[in-house]
Amino acid sequence: MTNTSDLILSTSVAPHVRLLTLNRKSKRNALSNDMIVDLGATLRDAAIDEDVRCVVLCGSDAFFSAGADIKEMRERGFEAIDNSARRSAWRDVANFPKPLIAAVEGICFGGGHELALLADIVIAGEGAVFGQPEINIGILPGDGATQRLTRVAGKSLAMLMILSGQSITARIAMQAGLVAEVVEGGRAQIRALELADLIAQKPPRSAELAKAAVLAAFQTTLDAGLEFERQAIRFAFSTADQQEGMNAFFEKRPPNYRGN
């Protein structure tokens, strides 16, 4: 399947893997309202498509995204970044239930960095840079960085990036836990697709449950998170894929996971 709006290109690149490409190159993939809404709609479709087990999100070789659309903000003010359609679309991204991998090359700033923070795994090219420069135009992050960046990277680095507007390298981002792997420049998408293909071969319900359980660690207490984990694995044991996985292990053959 290949289709969607001109702003978000959607391509099936391997069995059960969908590649989404931010496609507003003339604006360095600035996240306009239309672009965020289209991304949310595309992920909603992928969430209910049983053929999709993992999604890779990428930009171009020079930039993942330069951030929110400053022209829109100048013309519309606060309403440009705080309106019902945009909020709903960000929720669609945040609540996407399947594994989501971001392949980041070049600039990943502002809203683009906040988008990367919503990925489950970030693969960065060596030359990628990450930043929250909103303070340089008299505002502050408005799409989640004050909360998500702090939870992932800690107070000190979050404060440095948000208060100074300074960016950090891919290597520093990896040390801080924002990035899972740093690869040679130009190879982030290749590596992300390799990883997506590997994940797509796993039992999809278990992958979704595992994602939800890990995210629970950021959203609840330890005791509540552990209980969520117990209930998730209880459900996994009730699936046909669990039986297939264990049978394949003892029969020394590759498993054939069907998502049930």
TrEMBL record:
Keywords, sorted A to Z: Lyase
This protein's record includes keyword Lyase: yes
Annotated InterPro entries: ClpP/crotonase-like_dom_sf, Enoyl-CoA_hyd/isom_CS, Enoyl-CoA_hydra/iso, Enoyl-CoA_hydra_C
SUPFAM superfamilies for the chain: ClpP/crotonase (SSF52096)
Gene Ontology MF term list: hydro-lyase activity
GO biological process: fatty acid beta-oxidation
Signal peptide: none
Similarity annotation: Belongs to the enoyl-CoA hydratase/isomerase family.
Protein's name in the database: 2,3-dehydroadipyl-CoA hydratase
Organism for this UniProt entry: Bradyrhizobium forestalis
